[in-house]
Amino acid sequence: MNTFFSNPEAKEENQKLYHQKLDELPIRYEFMQIETSYGDTNIVITGPKGEQPLVLLHDSNSCAPAAIETMIDLTQNFRIYAVDIPGQPNLSEEFRLNMNDNSYGKWMYEILSRLGVKNAFLVGISFGGFVVWQTLIFEEKRIAKAFLISPSGIIKGNPLKIFFKVFRPVKRYKKQKKIKYLEQFSGEQFSEKRDFAETFLSNLFLHYTMDFSPIPLISKNKAQRIKTPIHIFTAENDLLFPGKKIIKRAKKIFTQSNEFVLLKNSKHVLSGTNNVYISKYILNKR
To answer: Which of 147, 157, 170, 193 is the most exposed place for a label (fewest CB within 10 A)?
Structure first.
């Protein structure tokens, strides 16, 4: 079987960290495997049965437990379906979908259909935000509202800054295995220290083939086809996707009823305080 991990031990360690994080969360959960045209997709389900469905999509190089931790305050009020995006370091198929066609939208439509969810809130974090708008373009009838957090696919950050402050520390860490380079990366990306994320990423940086393919930007024509209300949360000091620039372009390309929130003094990976704020915001939109 094809794998993006360099050896079985690294993959086993990744899955160990996955289950460890999930078990640390104050929730009851169950797993569901859904067969799609792109292979099996794993979903972590939590929250009271009968509550409004909320479909949660994590960041790149991440997993469902990390996304649930971000939105932990919503686990008592929604039936949450946290999806492991294929081709990422999680429990779904190790197959990366084409970002330049409608593959992610088609894949998510299959997930929503087989879950049988309707009137769902769709929440995407960073790369998950890219998947959200791909989904809305493909078919939005099962989605009531969409929430994009530090989303990719709307604007691009400064390539020189990203190279020197993101890619170079990662390359140095892979080569020299010095913790200071991992800390440099985290310091640029995280609003506050995240022990699980650093441990998870340290394994990935050394033993996992990451996908650094450029993420295509949504066109104005496609954005104007979307009718679902979209709520976008951006970080003022986001190196990858600067918050003010996202809002500026989003206001130009989206025509439906939208709301935009700029989170002050925040980096790409938000703080716990920001996550609490977003959770309350989403809850108030029911």
So the answer is: 193
The amino acid sitting at 21 is K
Residue length, the chain?
A: 286
Residue 57: beta bridge partners? 83, 124
Q: What are the pLDDT tens digits along the chain (286 aa)?
A: 589 999 999 999 999 999 999 999 999 999 999 999 999 999 999 999 999 999 999 999 999 999 999 999 999 999 999 999 999 999 999 999 999 999 999 999 999 999 999 999 999 999 999 999 999 999 999 999 999 999 999 999 999 999 999 999 999 999 999 999 999 999 999 999 988 999 999 999 999 999 888 999 999 999 999 999 999 999 999 999 999 999 999 999 998 778 999 999 999 999 999 999 999 999 999 9
CATH assignment, 28-158+214-284: 3.40.50.1820
Angle at 158 between CA 153 and CA 160, to 5 degrees: 130
Amino acid at 142: R
